[in-house]
Structures are given as structure tokens and as C-alpha cells.
């Protein structure tokens, strides 16, 4: 009898625990979507450790999957975000460039999560010209936002200023939200979106001090002369030597330049408030931390620049660029570490899918460039790391052609929500689960529109497979390029006119037409977006 009573008591005692365990087992997974702005895969050590160590971001590769052929559909900020949010190419969602505001009648994936009982939030950079829909809470930077003491637009529409460094602040607010909202049984989807490492690359003062002491290896193509490429590469305005600005980018004070009148070549057109715009946001205390480092950069420049030849100047600009760009990334990595640590401490990690990506890739001196926009690898590809405990095999590497177009469908399917039929991507679930046989795509489609505009990268579209890249530049040129990705990974030789590739060209042109049809793109669509610039008076 005693035994029976004990057993019943035991069952009663265990019952609530069991239900709780059951609940957490069946609870739909949480999602944290981390995206930085302009974070090149070359600057994540899980991809390449030549430039920087990013131990925290690397954790996602060690504990999850690293995609080596992830790309964007249109390598520029707001269009990439629009593609991610809608699961549609930019000619379909309408956000083909950074200029015109996002059409908020479009369905975005956070709205679908919310409708399906998820708590939703967005913190950091959106860059849409309007506020996000479908999130319970948000705090976004107006436009590009600022690094030092940034302003934010919050859920009720007010703009507030927060003191501190942007990457730290976005993390603080995201952690506060998690602490407040992720405690109970409802699942959540949080978008944690950094401004860093976007131009003008102002690291936090301590990182600025640390990184200006470092020297970085140069890319093999730093001194590219664009031979064997088309007009677009030759006319783009993103060369470190001839287009990167002294004040705005390299942090040379306007006073230093004024003192050197007639001795600063090449002459580069500056933004009017390029240096003082960001710098003057700092408090006196913060400026005091930046000043000694700025002084030493400026003293060196004043003494040495007039004596340097072009090769030395290029090398100096590259080092200055990398110091600030990588210094900004170092804070991103630290803060991703804070977030991952919190997931561990709180026990959330086990049931949370963590995605790390960027809105596009970036040139870190390859082809002598900074910025992005081109279909060439460094800007076309984007980092993608996915950790999903008990589903994704730790340390796995995937080289299939995946795109930001696929993210919305993947996240929805991962939590058991059926994606809308008009989304144009493909769910990455088969790849994440290691079922490669269910993956059929062998090439992706790309199109870039923002021209004429800053950096002057011509309009182009193309098809990219693991082996080849076929591109058509149009509007004020009519030029084709073909790259052999396996034999010419640096994309230095356009082999479009090489007879050895005639069959490849023929096949890829056919495939490209098929992809344009599949994604509902056409010459009429291309013209529509040219006409849009015409009616806005941006071109004649
Ligand atoms: C700014 C930058 C450009 C950059 C665009 C688009 N200049 O205009 O270099 O290409 O944004 O970037 S800045 O020095 O004022 O930042 S995007 O990531 O928003 O598409
Ligand atoms: Ca960007």
C-alpha cells in the first residue's frame, strides 16, 4: 500500500514537470536573424583568417553550417533588405535601389510570423525610408544612421538619441528585449541588424587605437588595371586611390588638407561635412579618446603624403581603410559574442535558430576597390552562417548556390509556417538537414539598377553557377562578360569572346533567358526602372 501511495505521489509530483518538458520540446523554435551592413565574407575568420579573427561569429560555423556560395540578388542595401523581407526579387517587390521608399503594401515575413503567434522585434538598420511592419517592437536608425551617439526611431514613431557606440547600443536593446520577452512560452523572431561596418567606418575609440597599430596583407588584385574587363569595371568610381576620400574615409582633418594646399594628389572630391559630420557627434570626453589617434594619422599624412609615389599612396590608403573597417567589425564580433553568451546562460540557445549574414559583400581592396554593387564575387557573395541545434550538423560547409531570396521561405518553413506561394526563393531546409538530393537549383539570377549614382556602377544582370558567371551590362553600354569561376577565381579575364567558351556562352544565354522568365523579369521591366529615373528627373 505504502508503495502504491508513494508511486501515485511520485506521478503527481512529476506530472507538471513532464508537461513543461513536453511543452518546451514541442515549442516552435525561436529565430534570431543577425545582419551586418557591408560585412565582407573575407572579414570573417570562419571564411578566411588573413585579415581578422572573429571568434564569436565563427562559433556559428563551428556549431552550425557555413555557406560558401551564398549571394544576393542585387548588391546594395535597401534592395537586399527588401528581398530578404519579401522573398522576392527587387524588380517584383519594387525596391530596386536605395532612392525610392519601400512599398509598404508588400507582405514582409515578420508580418507572417506575427500573424502565426510569434513575438517579433527589429533593432538596428533598416534603411527603407519608412518603418517596419509586423514587429511588436522596433528601434531603427533613421536612414544610414550614425556610429557615435546615434539617433533611433522607436515603436511609437518618436526619434530618440542614445549616448554610446552604435553596435553596443543595438546589442543592449536587443538583449533587453530578449530578457523581457523571451521568458515565457511564446516563440520569438528577432531581427538584430548592425549598421557596422558601413562607411564611413568609425570604430569605437578603443578599437580605433588598437587597429591603427595593425598592418594587413594586401589582396592580390589591389593594383588591378581593369585590362581584360569591360567598360563598367573601368568607369566605376570606387578605387581606393582615386575615389576614396581623405577626410570622410581616411580621417584626415580638413585643416590638415588646407595646410597642404597644392600638395595633395590625386585630388578627390569630398563630402562637405565628411569628417566633422560623424566626429562632431562625439562628446568632449569621447573626442578626447579619438584625438590622439587622429593626431598621429594626420601628422603622418602631413609629413609623408607629398613624398609618396602612387603605389605607396595606394598601400597607405588600403591600410587606413582596413584599420577602420576591421576595427568596426571587431565590435560586431564582440557584441555577437554577448548575444550568444546570453542565449547560453538563459537556456534559449537550444531552441533558437541563429542566422548571421550581411546585406551584401564588399570589396576590401580587391580590384583596387571599396563598396559593392557589382556581380563580381566580393560583392555578389555574402556571408551566411546558420546554427540550429539538433538539426544542422555542427561544422558543416555547404557550397550550393543559395541567395538572400531564400531566407524568408527558409525561416517560415523552419518553424512550420507555409510560405506564401508568390515568394520566389527556395527553402534551404533540405541543405540545412543535409538532404542534398532534394536540392535542384544550379544557377542564380542577379540584377543591379542604381545607375547613374554614387560609385557609377553600370546597370547589369546575369546568371551565376558554381562554374561560370555570364553578365550583360546595359543602358548606356551593351556589353557581355563571361568569367570562368573555377579557373579564374579573381575574375580578371572576361572570356566572353574566347572561342573556347562559345558553347558555354550559348548555353548560359539560354539559361539566363529561362531564369528571367522564371522570375518574371524582362527587357520591359528593365526599361520600366529606367523610365522611373527619367520621370524623377534623375536621367534625361
Ligand atoms: C552611402 C555611402 C556610399 C554607399 C551608399 C550605399 N557613402 O552613400 O559609399 O555606396 O551609401 O550603401 S557614405 O560615406 O555617405 O556612407 S548602402 O549599404 O546603404 O547601400
Ligand atoms: Ca549595405
From TrEMBL:
<comment type="similarity">
    <text>Belongs to the sulfatase family.</text>
</comment>
<feature type="signal peptide">
    <location>
        <begin position="1"/>
        <end position="21"/>
    </location>
</feature>
<keyword id="KW-0378">Hydrolase</keyword>
<feature type="domain" description="N-sulphoglucosamine sulphohydrolase C-terminal">
    <location>
        <begin position="365"/>
        <end position="516"/>
    </location>
</feature>
<keyword id="KW-0732">Signal</keyword>
<dbReference type="InterPro" id="IPR017850">
    <property type="entry name" value="Alkaline_phosphatase_core_sf"/>
</dbReference>
<dbReference type="Pfam" id="PF16347">
    <property type="entry name" value="SGSH_C"/>
</dbReference>
<dbReference type="InterPro" id="IPR024607">
    <property type="entry name" value="Sulfatase_CS"/>
</dbReference>
<dbReference type="GO" id="GO:0016787">
    <property type="term" value="F:hydrolase activity"/>
</dbReference>
<protein>
    <submittedName>
        <fullName>Arylsulfatase A</fullName>
    </submittedName>
</protein>
<dbReference type="InterPro" id="IPR032506">
    <property type="entry name" value="SGSH_C"/>
</dbReference>
Amino acid at each position: 500500500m505504502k508503495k502504491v501511495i508513494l508511486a501515485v505521489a511520485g506521478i503527481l509530483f512529476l506530472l507538471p514537470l513532464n508537461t513543461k518538458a513536453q511543452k518546451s520540446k514541442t515549442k516552435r523554435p525561436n529565430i534570431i536573424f543577425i545582419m551586418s551592413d557591408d560585412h565582407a565574407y573575407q572579414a570573417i575568420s570562419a571564411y578566411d583568417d588573413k585579415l581578422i579573427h572573429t571568434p564569436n561569429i565563427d562559433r556559428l560555423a563551428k556549431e552550425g553550417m557555413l555557406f560558401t556560395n551564398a549571394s544576393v540578388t542585387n548588391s546594395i542595401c535597401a534592395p537586399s533588405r527588401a528581398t530578404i523581407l519579401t522573398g522576392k526579387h527587387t524588380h517584383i517587390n519594387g525596391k530596386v535601389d536605395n532612392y525610392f521608399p519601400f512599398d509598404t503594401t508588400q507582405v514582409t515575413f515578420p508580418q507572417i510570423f506575427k500573424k502565426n503567434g510569434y513575438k517579433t522585434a527589429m533593432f538596428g538598420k533598416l534603411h527603407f525610408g519608412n518603418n517596419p511592419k509586423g514587429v511588436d517592437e522596433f528601434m531603427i536608425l533613421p536612414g544610414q544612421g550614425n556610429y557615435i551617439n546615434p539617433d533611433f526611431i522607436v515603436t511609437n514613431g518618436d526619434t530618440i538619441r542614445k549616448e554610446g557606440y552604435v553596435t553596443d547600443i543595438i546589442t543592449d536593446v536587443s538583449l533587453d528585449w530578449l530578457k523581457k520577452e523571451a521568458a515565457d512560452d511564446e516563440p520569438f523572431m528577432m531581427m538584430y541588424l548592425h549598421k557596422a561596418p558601413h562607411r564611413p567606418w568609425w570604430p569605437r575609440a578603443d578599437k580605433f587605437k588598437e587597429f591603427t597599430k595593425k598592418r594587413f596583407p594586401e589582396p592580390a588584385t589591389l593594383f588591378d588595371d581593369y585590362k581584360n574587363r569591360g567598360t563598367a569595371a573601368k568607369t566605376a568610381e570606387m578605387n581606393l586611390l582615386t575615389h576614396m576620400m581623405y577626410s570622410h574615409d581616411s580621417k584626415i582633418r580638413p585643416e590638415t588638407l588646407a595646410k597642404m594646399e597644392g600638395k595633395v594628389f590625386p585630388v578627390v572630391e569630398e563630402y562637405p561635412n565628411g569628417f566633422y559630420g560623424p566626429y562632431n557627434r562625439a562628446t568632449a570626453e569621447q573626442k578626447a579618446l579619438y584625438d590622439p589617434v587622429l593626431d598621429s594619422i594626420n601628422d603622418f599624412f602631413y609629413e609623408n603624403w607629398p613624398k609618396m609615389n602612387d603605389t605607396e599612396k595606394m598601400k597607405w590608403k588600403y591600410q587606413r581603410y582596413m584599420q577602420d573597417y576591421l576595427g568596426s567589425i571587431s565590435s560586431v564580433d564582440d557584441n555577437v559574442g554577448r548575444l550568444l553568451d546570453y542565449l547560453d546562460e538563459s537556456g534559449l540557445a537550444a531552441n533558437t535558430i541563429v542566422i548571421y549574414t550581411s546585406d551584401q559583400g564588399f570589396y576590401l581592396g580587391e580590384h583596387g576597390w571599396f563598396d559593392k554593387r557589382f556581380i563580381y564575387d566580393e560583392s555578389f557573395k555574402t556571408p551566411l552562417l546558420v546554427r540550429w541545434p539538433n538539426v544542422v550538423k555542427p561544422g558543416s560547409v555547404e557550397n550550393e548556390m543559395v541567395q538572400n531570396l531564400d531566407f524568408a521561405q527558409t525561416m517560415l518553413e523552419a518553424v512550420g509556417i507555409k510560405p506564401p506561394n508568390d515568394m520566389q526563393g527556395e527553402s534551404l531546409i533540405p541543405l540545412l538537414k543535409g538532404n542534398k538530393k532534394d536540392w535542384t537549383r544550379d544557377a542564380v539570377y542577379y540584377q543591379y539598377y542604381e545607375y547613374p549614382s554614387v560609385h557609377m556602377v553600370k546597370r547589369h544582370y546575369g546568371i551565376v553557377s558554381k562554374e561560370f558567371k555570364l553578365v550583360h551590362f546595359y543602358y548606356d553600354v551593351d556589353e557581355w562578360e563571361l568569367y570562368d569561376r573555377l579557373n579564374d577565381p579573381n575574375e580578371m579575364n572576361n572570356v566572353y569572346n574566347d572561342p573556347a567558351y562559345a558553347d558555354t556562352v550559348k548555353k548560359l544565354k539560354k539559361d539566363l533567358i529561362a531564369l528571367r522568365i522564371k522570375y518574371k523579369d524582362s527587357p520591359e521591366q528593365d526599361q520600366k526602372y529606367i523610365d522611373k529615373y527619367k520621370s524623377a528627373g534623375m536621367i534625361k
